[in-house]
Amino acid sequence: MSSPWSITLATLTKDIRLEWRSKDALNSMLFFSLLVVIIFSFSFDPNAEESREIAGGLIWVAFLFAAVVALNQTWARELRNQVLDAYRVSPAPPNSLFLAKALGNFVFVIILECVMTPLFVVFYNLRVLGPAWQLIPVGLLGTWALVVNGTFFAAVSLRTRSREIMLPLLLFPISIPAVQSMVEATRIILAGDGNARFWIVLLLTYDVVFTTASLALFGTILHAE
Amino acid sequence: MNDAAIAQGPIIITVTNLIKQFGHFAALRGVNAEFAAGKFYAILGDNGAGKTTLLRTIAGLAHPTRGEVSILGASPRAACREIGYMAHPSLLYDEMSGMENLRYFARLYGIAGEQRCEQAIRAVALDPGLARPVGQYSQGMRQRMSLARAILHDPRILLLDEPFSNVDVHSARDMVGLLKGMRDAGKTVFVVTHQASLLAGAADEFVCMQFGQIVERTPHLPSDVSPAGVQ
Amino acid sequence: MKRLFPILALLTAVLLIYGLYQALVVAPTERTMGDVQRIFYYHVPSAWTAFCLFFTNLLASLVYLVWKNSKADALAVASAEVGVIFCTIVLVTGPIWARPVWGIWWTWDVRLTTTLVLWLIYVSYLVLRRFSDSAQTPVLAAVLAIFGALDVPLVYFSIWFFRTQHPQPVIGGGGSLDPRMLHAFLINLLAFSCFGAMVCWARYRLERLHREVEEAQALESLLGAPQ
Fold first, then answer.
1. How far is the first Cα of chain C from the last one, in angstroms, to the nearest whole number?
2. Which residues 114-143 in chain C show a CB within 8 A of chain B?
């Protein structure tokens, strides 16, 4: 008997294998991320002082847009040939599927962020004045916040017309407290001005609340017609 | 409405007053039926008669507006291990080989090891060692691999929706022979099709649907079976 | 139950007229802000009504998810729509009040921002309902309502903390109210609550009727001659 975790792992490795074989999404997303960074750099070209103030906001907005484009493709593979029906008809628990998709998206978006961040540092001549290690929990928690709700709402928008626009429409309002936390925390750490602890805790709370909600309600969404 | 089942053997599926509406359109208008285990049922009817909707509701993929489906005394979702479902889309990942696809689906059903996957692929007369991705298969091969996926977990009930469409006659006959063998081995087989003549020697009963209801059940190929694809 | 509706409508009309009189005539002019301050008698009651309606939507969504009661879903639709309207009134009257008094159209303070986020969430709720035409729309919408409800306290906290770090003028101000102002305020609060309840009820009845017609048509197609 397969445990839910082994099904999650099997689905995740299957998705990674499929993505690796086609490399469609990965290549186009990498290029898209590069374009986003460059356009932002053209549009917001402040001197070093100001750049540290707004860099937090810029980086996360860039990540947000890149993530939305990536998230839209999440479920596309399951709709081709109606493979999702095969999953629905099996005894595999819905949450295993959700976690596998969310983790896959998480890895994908982290890769994009790792590509975009050095470019931002270069274009904006950024230096970190605060405790740089704190950027890691902010990055991980913040990305998970976007990805967990993004994966969930991408599944919801499968049942709607104008699928691609429904995802950001549903995701952005709900993500506001998370985005604010990420931006503030990044700004504080870059400028070395104050303590980012509250924002990190708020991000953690947001992640716990919405991961729980997504896991609790995903089954309902999956088995809706 | 003649819906007396030719019951030889225990009843495995009971459909009670099944109504399915999509907005104003009633796909199923009160279907009542019992289906016995170990029989081969062919479900016939024009487009829009409700055949696919009935099959999907039995599989648990569609939810009744009213009425219920009982499989071995349980709901379709609860009985999902006993159901193998196949439809016209292949329900397979185009970029993976047949064996890789089946390995993944085996995990969903809690099947360890590769033996069952190889057996299922051999049972549909395909080669487990074939590394070609499913997307490059011919239609006949793809349908057979989809069938392999459906029988992988050795379900008691097979629900097949238009398995022969766009398949050459030779492959179709092979598949019918295969399904007949499964019926002989004790499985209950449901095939929705427009090509009733293919099932002439194999099906135990022909279930004719029209306008969302079962209008006739007969062990003989109906003489007035409508030509395929006519609305 | 139906006879209550005209009574409620009459009561609402009376309260609104009386409240108008109180707000524009009886209540004294505020010392520093002048007559513009009278928007307060509409701005805050609208906010209160909007929040009550959104809370009603949350309860109705929960009831629907648990018991699949279609009346609950009709109430969810009605309360969301009417709630968005009142919320829009809040977001429009806020800047109209703020600009002459504090010199700014908008500030990202706790209350205004939370109201804006609520408005965004419920507009996305209405868009979801409009763009999803499957039988499971009520389930999807109810799930979104729950996500929205979980989000609001987080929004509130994040902005509250942000404001302690970066204080800005608070629109609305504190301070004690002259008893006549309090009286006008309470009358309008009651009037708007009744008004909101009345419009929501009307919308609810409209939705129920609409669904009854649809069910009758579906039943007809079910039983009648096939097309």
1. 40
2. 133, 135
